[in-house]
Amino acid sequence: MRKVYRGRDIEVSFDLDICVHVGECLRGHPGVFKLNRRPWILADEADADDVAEVVRRCPSGALQYRRLDGKPQEDPGEQTQVTPMRDGPLLVTGQDRSHA
Ligand code: SF4
Q: Span 9-24, mean pLDDT?
């Protein structure tokens, strides 16, 4: 189930069921993403552009964002891309057409 963490300029959502636990978010911005805090995501702890950049690095799509400040929304891209990560999962980006 996807949970939403709303900030002033950006809203971040998280789906634990598809998280692959590689910690990219925790390394990407420890102030925004902190496991031993509730809520564990504080979208206002960084500039919205920085939050969006970290969310885009999430390899599973567990993290997504929605801009509330009028800036462009997340674009999954037309092409599906699969990028192997060192000792890790495959980073898959693109549109989910399984519901089309
Ligand atoms: S970056 Fe994405 S897949 Fe990795 S731990 Fe964070 S939410 Fe989970």
A: 94
Mutation test residue for ligand 1: of 17, 25, 29, 55, the one with most atoms within 8 Å of CB: 25
Query: Could you tell me the CATH number of the domain that includes residue 43?
Result: 3.30.70.20
Q: What mean pLDDT is predicted for residues 39-52?
A: 98
CA 94 to mean position of chain CA atoms: 14
- Print the domain residue range for 19: 2-73
Find, among 51, 58, 40, the residue nearest to 9 by Cα. Answer: 51
Distance (Å) from CA 22 to ligand 1 centroid: 6
Q: Which two tokens stand for residue 72?
A: 């462009």
The phi and psi torsions of 30 (rounded to 5 degrees) equal -65, -20
| Mean pLDDT across 17-32 | 94
Number of domains in the chain: 1
Cβ(62) to ligand 1 under 6 A?
A: yes
Confidence (pTM): 0.82
Across the range 66-75, mean pLDDT stands at 94
